[in-house]
Amino acid sequence: MVLTASGRSAVVAAVALAAAVTTACSPIASLPASLPTTPSPAASRTALADPTRPAMTAPTATSTPARTGGSATADPEGYIPVVVPASAITTVELPAGFGFHRLDSDGPLVVLDQVASVSPAAGRSIYLVDLANATMRTLTDAPSGYTVWAPAISGSVVAWLEWHYEGQSDTGACDWRIRVEDVSASGLARTVASGVQRRAGTGFGASWPALDLDGDRVVYAIEDPSAAPDGWQIIVRTLAGDVLKTIHVPEPVYDLAASDGAIAWTEGRTDPKLGYTTATHLFVAQGSATTGTELASDAYEVALDAGRLVWTKDSPGGQGAAIGTRMWSTSLDSLAPMAVSPPPGQGTEQLQEWPATGDGIVTWGSARVSMADPTQNGDRLGVWSPTTAHAVEIHPTPGAILSGAGGGWVVWVDYRSDPPTVSGITDQVLGLP
Fold first, then answer.
1. Domains in the chain with CATH codes
2. Which of 13, 104, 197, 271 has the most Cβ atoms closer than 10 angstroms to its Cβ?
3. Sorting pLDDT into bands at 50, 70 and 90, what band is 376?
4. Cα separation, 6 vs 28, whole angstroms
5. Is residue 287 left, alpha or beta, with left meaning phi > 0 and alpha meaning psi from -120 to 50?
6. What is the pLDDT of residues 377-415, one digit of tens each?
């Protein structure tokens, strides 16, 4: 599912990709440092102990993912390489210099936005790639002064956020609105919610909302005016505009994801004086629940689909600084967190970023930096599913910082190619469910 922006990830990406990409092609944008630094009372939530990180079992023998009765050989980063035939990959070229920011997908349909640093106009558009028909088109062009943010797709419905600051140089209050469009119909985009975020700090603006799409519902997080100075609220609203549920949380929401009525989010504080050091916690609320169950601390980006939750979490010793982030996951049935990727820091891998999930599959970008061979710098596509029991690395995916899964497809971008591309394969090609 879709991810909201984070200044924390801007810091992480700068470390991991400094040798790999230029500023113009960076998929990361900084979050205005507006999250409060003062603690707030804990909400009445059920707390689960954050388990000790389980050790990864090193696979042994062939070149394919281990299956029952089989074996495999891991690369220096701890992944099992899987080479996908070029004939099985569908690729669509994007405009030269495309500045990847966020991606979401459902089957062969992929929605993307660009970082505004590429150009003011680039930051005002949403793009729809149809891998089944090898096409791309622009869905929307927001008015001048607005930034379009973090599109989400569910079936043929696309939702996105549009926002702008009332002050100069991204300061002051943040006016926002949530727009939706059915891409299978000829109708125009329409607004289903709007408002103003007002908690700006000295020298920076208020935070924009977090947003996801769950079927025919938008799920978003905004400031809670009744819970100043820190509280936020998560709202579930139909596309017709009716509010179905509100979850009140004591701290700002960092990221959220929603699927089949379940909502997962990370909340916490960001201190710009400490280089975006954070103190975040992951919660999940299922069904009619209006409070969350805590699953983990030091968690950041989240994705949720079909009963599978995945998130990025700090490595040991990096709590609060997002150093060497690793992929963790659980089913909503068990709520038993486990690491599903190798520990970062092996070989040339620096960290793992931008989780996605669909059809039970988990995907992410594996950030690599090699001082000895700069041609190896970039991101690789990491994939895990319950049938593999360990992480695999899909080849060739040299610039796969963003990815998606669901609807029978696994998709990824390549920011290193010229021009940049979006590619995809079906689950069956990987032998995954």
1. 7-36+65-430 (2.130.10.10)
2. 104
3. confident
4. 8
5. left
6. 889 999 998 877 789 999 889 899 999 999 999 999 999
